[in-house]
Amino acid sequence: MSTQTQQANRILPKRLLSSSYDLISRLAYLFIKLKISPNAISLTALVAGMGAGLLFFLEKPLSAGLVIILCGIFDIIDGKVAASTKRTSLFGAIFDSTLDRYSEFFIYIGLAAYFRNHWALWVAILAFLGSAMVSYTRARAEGLGIECKIGIMQRAERLVFLCLGSIIGSLARIFDPVMIAVLAVIALISNFTAFQRAFYVKKIEKQGKLRKED
Predict the structure, then answer these.
(1) Is residue 153 helix, strand or coil?
(2) In the chain, where the domains are located
(3) Is domain 14-213 classified as CATH 1.20.120.1760?
(4) Which of 45, 91, 132, 173 is the most buried (most CB within 10 A)?
């Protein structure tokens, strides 16, 4: 697999991401002491994603936003617990990634159901499409032997946008326009990120050919 250093800007500052991961890592020790398996935590993250989707459908966006926070926290903790307890495995990795995709699906399907009688339904569909393609292009690139984690709209950004849109929109009593704007941003930038990753593979392939010629 290519080990070339990847440099790409992200919407969330690196310091914010790093400090958030460090804080959540401390919570992981609690799960380690309780001897909770990483797969069980992954399932909990899935349940949180399903719960958020259901809450959107029930028109309770503030509660949905708070549950999305839990979904994101559990999504980070499962990997930390697996690494700390040396319980990482190929099955655990694909199981976690698979549940992540299902979790996002339920969140977006809940938003689509919320906007079922509104043109924003299509924005929610495009946002989910972009989110799925970001994950697919990374997996496909890695299947070709190229590490591909670049992109400005990755899973962390998507969850933060959805969470903030839900909470701020609800508290300000302007949920619909705020969430439509959030979904539009996710739809636009996540689909851009998918193509960004595809062209990154092209770049690596071209550089590989040039090295062979040298």
Answers:
(1) coil
(2) 14-213
(3) yes
(4) 45
